[in-house]
Structures are given as structure tokens and as C-alpha cells.
């Protein structure tokens, strides 16, 4: 079962991206390096609740 999750910037806490993850195989929160439009650089984005 895939669920929609929202990714927030680790620096400015801006919620920039949304993606899907498989809840059955991935139980922990997703972390990805993405470009933040507010910070104007690539930062670590984490899954929010």
C-alpha cells in the first residue's frame, strides 16, 4: 500500500515536495537531498507527520 507523504526542508522547515512511499517496506521516515526554493541550495528534506 502506497501513501502520500510531504517533505519539509531541514533548514527553513518549508514544505516543498510531496512524494509516495510504500508503507509495508519502509517504516522509517524518508530523507532526501532536494533543492529548496527558499534557501536557494540543496538541503536535506525529511518526511513530516
Automatic annotation (TrEMBL):
GO terms for molecular function: structural constituent of ribosome. InterPro entries: Ribosomal_bL33, Ribosomal_bL33_CS, Ribosomal_bL33_sf, Ribosomal_zn-bd. One of its GO terms (biological process) is translation. Keywords: Ribonucleoprotein, Ribosomal protein. The lineage of its organism: Bacteria, Bacillati, Bacillota, Bacilli, Bacillales. This is Large ribosomal subunit protein bL33. It comes from Halalkalibacter akibai (strain ATCC 43226 / DSM 21942 / CIP 109018 / JCM 9157 / 1139) (Bacillus akibai). GO terms for cellular component: cytoplasm; ribonucleoprotein complex; ribosome. The keyword Iron does not apply. The keyword Ribonucleoprotein applies. Belongs to the bacterial ribosomal protein bL33 family.
